[in-house]
## 1
Amino acid sequence: MSRFMQYVIFACLGACLLLSGCAIPTETVDTSYDKGKAVMGLDYRDFENAASDMVESMLSSGAVNKPDGGRYVMVISRITNDTMQRIDTDQLVKKIRVELLRSGKVVTTTAVGLDGPEDQMVMAARDLRHSDEFDQSRGTVKGQLIKPELSLSGKIIQRNNRIDKRRQQVDYYFQMTMTDIATGLAWWEDEKPIVKRGSSKSVSW
């Protein structure tokens, strides 16, 4: 092997060792005690805070206090993402649903949705009613599904504002509305703003 090839090999090995030594180690974050730096975009802490504030507002308003003490059946309508980020709005909705379910005042139906059932098996299982391969005494019967009484819709908005040449402000607005399906009246509405200021070089998408 020529000296040139040996030099190339040693140089490559040295570069690999240098890069591995400078690599940032991976760590698991305990979200209960995370004191990490804030980011200009939306992170899990923003979704948790927005969801908690929305549920607290909803519960304190009395809008989900059913007169007979039972639980309202809620369906998830459209949650629009009007930000510069690729947000899965289910991240926000899921946290709201979980907290409402824990409150004992609201249960969410997965048999209805704007784009079809959230859980397609709810309707698919009903196609088995006429199959001889299944015990029909254990199957679903007509009239068991419960229609939703409340609908939850919302929007996440982003507005970028330059403070000066070095700093920027990004405003996020979490807007939610709960509508009584029977009357079409909005029983509850709220808006949660999240404002972030930082370097104008920071990206928010």
Note: The first strand starts at residue 72 and ends at 82.
## 2
Amino acid sequence: MDSHDEFSRAEMMIVTMARLLEDAENVFMGVASNLPFFSIWLAKELYNKDLTWLNIPGRVNPKPALPPRSTVDFEVFRNASASITLSQIFDMSARGELDVAFLSGVQVDKYGNFNLSHISDGNRIKVQFTGGAGSALLCANTKRVIFWRTRHDRRSFVEKCSVYTATGNIYSVVSPISEFKKKDGILALESIFPYSSYDEVAKRTGFPVEPAPIALPPTEDELTLLRDFDPEGIREIEF
């Protein structure tokens, strides 16, 4: 455990995102999405058994026997009920049929825009990132986007992104120390995680934030399910 005697930062993020899926119809996760994998799995186990799980390898409602280290591993294919192509997922989004998608980036700003493209230094690209792939379309067309980032500092949570890789329907932003919700076009602090504080969140955020309540910690049921499913601690690898 790296943040609390009873639960880790990864577990707090997983549980927070899983709870957001309680009323979701369907959810999509892409590559390099370790924490979303566990969140979707936990939501289907505990909160929303009817949730339709879509993933970038093209399977629907997989039933992994164990957590994979890669989100394109065979385990995200195992015992799936159907197949779907990535182009069909994008079509679903364009038709307004994709309910939730998990996306991430290097920077997110107070307006809910995010940057996965590059950081500029004048007319020169200072740091090149991977690029957004289909993030721009998904962020604009998916009903609710959950943005997660395992780093929370003033370089990650900024006043204004230098480049907009994607903008649109950001619903929730989850970091290791807090959750934000987009309200009236601005990210507002929704909750502070039990091992953090308002002072820490304010100090590590590059735009002003108002106080918020302390989030409910993971329950015994949530932690037991996660730890029994993942005795090797793969849920921690993004940290």
Note: The mean pLDDT is 93.
## 3
Amino acid sequence: MNAFADSHDHIADDHHHGPPPIHYSSRVAPAVLGMFLFIASEIMLFGAFFTVYFFDRVVNHGVNGHWPPEGFHRPAFVALINTLILVSSSGTMHWADSSVKKGNRAGLQAGLVLTLCLGFTFLITQVIEYHRLGFNTGDTSFAATFFGLTGLHGAHVFIGLMILLVMTIRAFRGHFSPEHHHGVELGGIYWHFVDVMWIVVYVTVYLL
């Protein structure tokens, strides 16, 4: 009788607690790992655009003797200012991520708002630059690859801003805490990727 009761209690206890937690072979959270894999695919996408850009440069530099072709001006100074803006946004994003892990809700909100403002400033400056360039995508292969690379990055900035906007709204609604902060962490990883990729684009397109 006692054995039957013990068995019944054991079954009830198993039913109450449910199955054991999933064991992950890696210390990296699945969501974070998924974001890194997504970023790896994005790097390959940018790599394809960089390959086209350098191929075009090698071919046309050999023909014209200089790069970019005559009549095309790259606004390196404006791009430098934009680079400083985007690098600063990485700092504010890191502040937001660190704040949520420490339970500092005000720091989280301030960091996200500042990151959002800096990101919008970058994107608006990029659009204004496009209107002042004096050339368009159909002019030469240089123009096509220039707009291709910078436009691809601009599209990623726009997506990042949408993610930041959702994160900011959730932060003001109190959805994040030191125990539940993966939404901020994942958004931060993506934003840092966008920032680092812009540095590569800036050096490649505006300086080299």
Note: The radius of gyration is 24 Å.
## 4
Amino acid sequence: MNVTIIGAGNMGRGIGTRLIAGGHKVTFVDANPETAQKAAADLKAESATLDAPLGDVVVLAVWYGTNIEIAKQLGNKLAGKVVVDIANPLNSTYDGLATAPDSSSAEDLAKALVDGAKVVKAFNTTYAGTLLAGQVAGQPLDVFIAGDDADAKAKVAQLVADGGMRAIDAGPLHRARQIEGMQLLHITLQGTLGTNWGSALKIVS
């Protein structure tokens, strides 16, 4: 697949690493063109600006709030695209969620998108360093996915699987509320566990 990653920071690079490992074409876009160019050079990918054509899948590897601003800025360019939201909508003190109880970052993003764009929540529970490795303690990463469009989720699940990870379908888009809440707990436990952003959430049986 042809994937555009908007945001060439640590998370964008981590996701890009896995997608490239899975054989997919990745193009980085960033507010700082030099950042996108460096990520592309380091990962043997491509870089572009927001004016360029977008891939079939667009990953918004940016903060909550910025994801919505970008969606509004891109407007009709996102029609027909699968838009992946990775944001964790943390409040200013990082001890709670900034979204309303009956919403989520992914649902807020969906409201800002044009008709025909399909939102999938994914990658918000995986830290950048674990994405670079693709595993923790010898176990492949679990990537929890939520969305209302089955085909869009299938595309994202394929990207996940091709990158050596396990996709877990958590259900419709409103399940992003629980996925984001789950990651809030995971974030707050980093100091308690001393895992230094190197842990992973995984379902075992």
Note: The mean pLDDT is 97.
